[in-house]
Amino acid sequence: MNLPEATNLISTILQSTAFNNLTTGAFGALFGALGAQAIVSRQQRRQSVVTELNNVNAALSLCFSTCSAFANAKRQHALPILDAIEDIRMQRDAIWETNKTLTAPLRLPFKPTLEFRTVVPVNVPIEQLERQIFGKISIYGRGLAALSELVRANKGLDHAIAYREELVVEYKGRERSPEEATHFYLGNTTSGGTDTRYPNSVDAINSQMDACIFFSKILADDLARYGNALRKKNAGWLMRSLPKVAKIDWSPMMDNGIFPSEKTFEKWVKAFPIPI
Predict the structure, then answer these.
(1) CA 270 to chain centroid
(2) Are 254 and 213 in contact (CB under 8 A)?
(3) What global pTM score does this model have?
């Protein structure tokens, strides 16, 4: 076959109905497959976003439960034992001032009633919260730092509670005069030295509990911020609406004075500013 004949044959094939149907079908199948793949990819993306937003809401629930548990423990146990020390100190100082004006036979004795209520570790879902965040949510930065601080503070609180209980057992293990009991309870300096173990253990319980409350709220705030940013980023192109991020009402805790001052954690807040 010479070149003109080959050219005519190719032209005839290209103009044929069968060839046109074949090429149309091939391109249709190609673009149809690409379109189907895009739809599947879009659905998978939406499901991924929905799943992560649901995980964020689950983590927020755990944060609120954790923060509430620590707040209740602070109100019921930590603050009362701290206030009891201050009450005994005020009673002692008042009697000292009164006795300054009295002669020895008339001086008032000081026999305080000491508060040694039992304080138990706070039962919170810290491990579950860790698994939820590290395994199911892509948050980073300040949120993860807050989670680490929360875990550390919770462990510190358990140690402080256990140490105070050891001191209470030690105190009850032998008879003490009212003066000796007061020295032990308040950490006074005596001729035998200064023993501040008990008041220090009470301070530690309160400070660690404040840290647990503070960092569980910081974590919740950052989770909510992350979830809202994720939702806003994806809401524009997804076909159906996405789950809303849960809102937590912290006002009851703020209003009753249980929530610690941010000044206590000023250095940490400066080191980890709010993400933009």
Answers:
(1) 18
(2) no
(3) 0.80
